[in-house]
Amino acid sequence: MKLTHLFALSSLLLPVFAAPEPPTEAIEERAKYGADTKYFHEPGGNDELGHYDIRYFSGAPVTYEERGDTLLHLIRSYLTVFREKNVETWIAHGTLLGWWWNGKIMPWDWDLDTQVSASTLTWLGENLNMTFHNYTSVNEDGTSETREFLLDINPNHVERIRGDGQNVIDARWIDVRNGLFIDITGLSETNPSTQPGIWSCKNFHRYRTRDLYPLRETVFEGVPALVPYSFDRILTEEYSARALTKTMHEGHRWMPEQKEWVKQEPIHSKKPPRARAHVPRSVQAEENPKSGLRNLLRVL
């Protein structure tokens, strides 16, 4: 995929050995959970409040523009630091779908998804848990900005089964300014004797070894990245073929001339919109999609 590098990037790793002291409000909020087994906590369970780490949530969701800017620096910093540390990771789920379309984050996304192997996850827990990372981006006009991120490894990552479902996320890369994050999940062969070569996370996503490896070198949001070898099979199995052709979603339209998803002005209706709880993004299958995967394969 041919993408223009818009930024010159550099990062500095600053290890620490203790978790940040959460604000008083967060301590009181955590106290409500009592003996809750969940490690990562969010201030709410919908799209407005379900994608912030409670320790760094200011009390109000960020704007559409700030969310996009935060996610952009989250993924650039994450991919850059992990590559500098020679830690293998690849983009997954909706983040991978964004890469398929134009090598960018879907503008309606609230967080990002990456994956690592379970052995890599163990190494991260032993060597980089609770480390802060300063990341500086230099813009084309010469201005620069440094942001700070926390790598937090869920201690429950050692259990490779779903359990009570409260700890399916194994680690997070968190922007300490507002609490937005990247979800990091580990993959392992949980049943190597009966299902060799089948890798799974704790949320029941399964992958074949030949679909994951060898990982493909590419570019995502202007920085080097890795994607699974059979990204096409993975995306269609997870989202259906319709996800690769649908040009209207979440109030955005795909503009082929610009190769961008553009936010559409809402159409005002007399009927108030129905409240929706947060659910994973899904799309309906289409028997005869208008185009296929060959469009992407031509540029790889």
From TrEMBL:
Compartment(s) where it occurs, according to its Swiss-Prot or TrEMBL record: Membrane
Q: What is its main location?
A: membrane
Q: Can you say what this protein is called?
A: Protein MNN4
**By which gene is this protein encoded?**
MNN4_0
User: Which is a Pfam family this sequence falls into?
Assistant: LicD
Question: Matching PANTHER family, A to Z?
Answer: FUKUTIN-RELATED, RIBITOL-5-PHOSPHATE TRANSFERASE FKTN
Q: Where is the signal peptide?
A: 1-18
What residue spans carry the region label Disordered? 263-290
According to the UniProt entry, which residue ranges have a biased composition of type Basic residues?
269-279
Annotated LicD/FKTN/FKRP nucleotidyltransferase domain residues: 83-191, 202-239
* Highest classification ranks of the organism: Eukaryota, Fungi, Dikarya, Ascomycota, Pezizomycotina
Domain of life (superkingdom): Eukaryota
